[in-house]
Amino acid sequence: MASTPDRRTDPFRADSDPLTITLFVLLCEYARLRMTVTSQQLMARLFAPPMRLSGVESSPAGNVAELQVALSRVTEVSLERLGVNVSALVVTAKTNRPGGRHDADDPSGFYLPMARHGYDVTDPDKLVLDEQGRVYAAFA
What we know:
Elements: H1 11-15, H2 18-33, E1 37-38, H3 39-46, H4 60-82, E2 90-91, H5 111-116, H6 124-138
Parallel strand pairs: 1-2
Helix pairs in contact: 2-4
């Protein structure tokens, strides 16, 4: 059985802020439950008063930006360590798929790191369903 790296020697745990670590753990839990989550649900859970992980008051726009930065870091770490993108579980309520532009020449959001890792982003529905399936299988 592999041991879990110590916080002092694990770069992700040592260098990441509490929001990023909490988001990673939450998304892993959603994967175990085979569920998706909306950005709004994450915002309500992570930034709900009176408890703020950073301990600093900020605007809703600032919270969105903070969540996007954490989500980007979680994407990098999950692709690197797990071989799947747990951020595929963060969807918009309107489309039930991750946000971003899936243009192969100029992807953004969820699709940018996927394109950088060699995934075909031209069929977003297939990409999202396949990646969500891989995430669920990794946590089965």
